[in-house]
Amino acid sequence: MDMAIKIGMLVVFFGIMLGTGFYCRKHSTDVDGFVLGGRSVGPWLTAFAYGTSYFSAVVFVGYAGQFGWKYGIAATWAGIGNALIGSLMAWAILGRRTRVMTQHLDSATMPQFFESRFDSSALKLASSVIIFVFLIPYTASLYNGLSRLFGMAFDIDYSICVIAMAILTGIYVIAGGYMATAINDFIQGIIMLVGIVAVIAAVLQTQGGLTEALKGLARVTDPEVSDVPGVFNSFLGPDPVNLAGVVLLTSLGTWGLPQMVQKFYAIKSEKAINKGMIISTLFALVVAGGCYFLGGFGRLFGHRIDLNKDGFDAIIPAMLSELSPFLIAVVVILVLSASMSTLSSLVLASSSTLTLDFIKGTVVKDLSVKKQLLIIRILIGVFIAISVVIAIIQYKSNVTFIAQLMGISWGALAGAFLAPFLYGLYWKRATAGSVWASFLFSTVVMTANMLCKPIFPKLLQSPINAGVFCMLIGLILVPAVSFFTKAPAKEHIDHVFSCYDAKVVVSVTDAIGEPISKED
Q1: Deepest in the core among 27, 42, 260, 284, taking most CB within 10 A?
Q2: How far are the Cα atoms of 207, 387, 421 from residue 109, in angstroms, in the given order?
Q3: Banded pLDDT at 416 (limits 50, 70, 90)
Q4: Distance (Å, rounded) from C-alpha 392 to C-alpha 159?
């Protein structure tokens, strides 16, 4: 009976996802509709698409367990940072300008933006290669958190679960494009919101409630981490410096991730941006804040795992193992929702970028709209297949570097793109040379961090801290190099920024002006 409940809930979930994909086929008849939903997506769908693309199984199982164990209840700061910096500030600073300038430049992807903004087709090709190289391992890492949960909930081989999830995600993305992804993200987001609240309540109840759980955490000691009593129950935890690195990479890093920024390209209007900003922030506060808050109690369940053998990924499943069959099914669907939403966003960003920015005009000079759509759909299948193969190899052979590559991928992408994109939206003097400097610096540093870790200072041996270092240096590097390189052509830059000076006529219900005198 218990197994029937779990399987039944999964069947209903997958049925809704597939039905949405086929329903949205009418929105994916051209490239703009398939990749951006015709730039007419409302605030709720965009906000949930942003949030569900943000938080995957890597966060729910990997990061929540790892950072909750390391920093205790202070890990909640990562979730708060995700809400305030990664959502609220990202929407406020990037949202409107991204939407206006990308439409003005007719850019559907981040590489197209770099080409049009900095008048350099070489930048488009380079950025598309960086996205392709570093999004593939990121995509593969999404499956990592599922293995233990499925092992706990079902007597099904992990490979079968991964393949099934990948095929179903591929079908609805290939059929319905961005609109199907956005609608499914909304449904999956509702599941994530309800699920995380229910799971936190249930897990804390096993410890006698919130107050007793906090008291229990205050009694936990670990001499290898800190000699301070109650440090895992403290405001900043045992290691505030490295905790700050986690907050910055997982929060500020979203500003430079192509699959996140692309959500702003598709939003419908300025009103939708303002409303979406509030919705997205609240979503992140509940989901990310709740996720890291839950992970902060991980040490109360340390007796259930062998950390040296099982690793940090075993912590969250151990916390959930004694819940009711219904709640376990909710958790599995919650993590599936998080993973499928992020997977769909990543493969859509990867395939559209490779097609529109690399193949079109470079490999194939004259590519019709119909052929572009066909290639995008084929590449979605290819990217999903590659990620499945990598994930299964990682699981079967316990190759741990692939999981670590998630941090490398995030750091390289955010480090390379954040500063050029931000300055490109706001500063006319930013040059193509400065963008090249940012690209090269971050990709070289993060690749070296993966291959030659001992050459880095101890603080920067962590991929997370190295990624933060790249982002911060990029914010200095772009203006510094811009001052020493040739300024962009005035005609070109005036054209690019003319979108912000366009005059529009609004009714008096939308704007308050000076009173008109009788003489006028």
Answers
A1: 284
A2: 48, 22, 12
A3: very high
A4: 6
Residue 222's SS3 state is strand
Per-residue b or e along 24-47, where b marks 16 or more CB atoms closer than 10 Å to that residue's CB: beebbeebbbbbbbbbebbbbbbb
Tokens of 156: 């099904």
pTM of the entire predicted model: 0.86
Cα dihedral sign, 86-232-206-208: negative
**Buried residues in 439-475 as b, exposed as e (16+ CB within 10 A):** bebbbebbeebbeeeeebeeebebbbbbbbbbbebbb
Spatial neighbors of 269 by CB under 8 A, at least 6 apart, are: none
In this structure, how many other beta carbons lie within 10 angstroms of the beta carbon of residue 520? Answer: 6
The Cα–Cα gap between 294 and 237 comes to 15
Q: In the structure encoding, which two tokens stand for residue 220, read together?
A: 């936990």
Other CB atoms closer than 10 Å to residue 75's CB: what's the count? 29
- Residue closest to 255 by CA, chosen among 54, 480, 404, 496: 54
Length of the chain: 520
Instruction: Please tell me the distance from the alpha carbon of residue 439 to that of residue 418, in angstroms, as a whole number.
Output: 10
CA distance 316 to 117: 44
Rounded Cα distance, 270 and 117, in Å? 22
Distance from C-alpha of 71 to C-alpha of 241, rounded to nearest angstrom: 11
DSSP-assigned letter for residue 237: -
Residue 354 tokens read as 């490779």
d(CA 336, CA 30): 29
Instruction: List % helix, strand, coil for the chain (3-state, nearest 5).
Output: 80, 0, 20
State both tokens at 5.
Answer: 């409940």
Is 476 exposed, middle or buried (CB count within 10 Å of its CB: 0-12, 13-18, 19+)? exposed
Name residue 462's amino acid. Answer: S
Contact call for residues 130 and 412 (beta carbons, < 8 A) = yes
Which pLDDT belongs to residue 281? 95
| pLDDT at residue 516 is higher than 50 | no
Q: Is 257 in contact with 110 (CB distance < 8 Å)?
A: no
Q: Specify the pLDDT at position 458.
A: 87
**Strand spans (E) along 138-246:** none
Q: Calculate the alpha carbon distances from 346 to 170, 218, 259, 379 in Å.
A: 11, 40, 6, 12
Query: Looking at this protein, which amino acid is placed at residue 20?
Result: T
pLDDT computed for residue 518 by the predictor: 45
SS3 call for 245: helix
CA distances to 44, 143, 161 from 150, rounded to whole Å, are: 31, 11, 8
